[in-house]
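Running co-folding for NDP.
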Amino acid sequence: MTSPVRLALLGCGTVGSEVVRLLHEQSTDLTARIGAPLEIVGIAVRRLGRDRGALPVDEALFTTDALGLIKRDDVDVVIEVVGGIEPARGWLVEALRAGKSVVTANKALLAEDGAALHDAAAEGRADLYYEASVAGAIPLLRPLRDSLHGDRVNRVTGIVNGTTNFILSAMDATGAGFAEALEEATELGYAEADPTADVEGFDAAAKAAILASLAFHTRITAADVHREGITEVTAADVASAKAMGCTIKLLCIAARGRDAAGSETVSVRVHPAMIPLTHPLASVGDAFNAVFVEAEAAGQLMFYGRGAGGAPTASAVLGDVVAVARNRLAGVRAASESAYADLAVRPMGEALTRYHVSLDVADRPGVLASVAGVFARHDVSIATVRQGSAGGGRPGSGDDAELVIVTHMAPDAALAATVGELHGLDIVRSVTSVLRVEGEA
Ligand SMILES: NC(=O)C1=CN([C@@H]2O[C@H](COP(=O)(O)OP(=O)(O)OC[C@H]3O[C@@H](n4cnc5c(N)ncnc54)[C@H](OP(=O)(O)O)[C@@H]3O)[C@@H](O)[C@H]2O)C=CC1
Ligand SMILES: N[C@@H](CC=O)C(=O)O
């Protein structure tokens, strides 16, 4: 019998405990697939003696000394499902430099300082796999890294955060406000006790950085990603989107472009956007994720599935464990990622989109002309205007009216300047919302 591939598991929470369960349940099949058994030799956690359900593992394997575990001679593969930047970065750099294969789900670390991990992997000639870091169970990173390697990816558009997709889908289905939908997401266990990373877009921005780096063979960090969350999306925005035949999604968009000198650039952004119901991402509901990839020769590809949760994420972790275990037995490591392109990041101000702008204005003659004049001054062309009564006032009386303006494509900076000037107009009582509109209606 071939000697076992020995695993150190760092973290035994939502994902880690499912990794333990799957390793146990699938052990016979995994051994047959790899050609050697997998053996957990230690599990690092923050607190010992915590109730972890009926985990099929010896209690004596648990330790709070993660670094000590990593350094042991009998560890071949380190699986990191703890999360956060430190101490995870130090652990993984140590493991990779020592030639140990690493499998991680840590998107925050990869997006903040993936370069440190890749450099350590090259130094130690070790494997670094991280399929679970983006879109949970969905096989996405390896298709980008391997299957699409002969093609040129031009754009990636995705819904990569399950919690926010659940919230926006609930707002769309029931007309609920953001706070109410967040409460439901928390009750169902989708949102964490502190949902900031999800609802403010940090989680999606980290995933966008990882996707853009792989798709365009360049190094993008979370700091390069323009980020907006969904906390400002209102029930009125959702209703307005419906009236336009659209729905609102938190999108991650990474695209190639060119600067004024003709040099290739990349733009990466995460923000809520209205998309037409005919768009492939519009029907992605609940806590599901989906990523739409546009490549030169392959055309349009769509990846869909469960992007969060213990078991789906553990499935992706296990897939990576099998790959690195096979590599070790064959005495090879995966080819290094090709981050040769060094593309400049295009400023958000140059991003071109359409906009949906809602205004609460005084309902009196000339208001439309004044508002339209502001858009014209900033070279933002108006596509449609809809006027309704905001407070039940009499038309033409000077009471409040609601104006909803949808623009043609315009640069983000021009729209920001337009909104800035609208705020200062005395007939504009408030700019109630500004949302981007993506995809052709
Ligand atoms: N949950 C999900 O749906 C998904 C998660 N991920 C990523 O997977 C990783 C893990 O997430 P998740 O399982 O949800 O997180 P949890 O918070 O459920 O689990 C974290 C685990 O790490 C342990 N831990 C924390 N700090 C330390 C430390 N200093 N030393 C040793 N162990 C420590 C905790 O120990 P203790 O049990 O003692 O508290 C716990 O077992 C993260 O990077 C996350 O972003 C990726 C995709 C989806
Ligand atoms: N909090 C994340 C979990 C997976 O990455 C989400 O909601 O998608």
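Result summary
Residues 11-16, 44-47, 50, 66, 81-83, 87, 105-107, 132, 136, 308-309, 313 surround NDP (ligand 1) (CB under 6 Å).
The longest helix spans residues 310-330.
Job closed.
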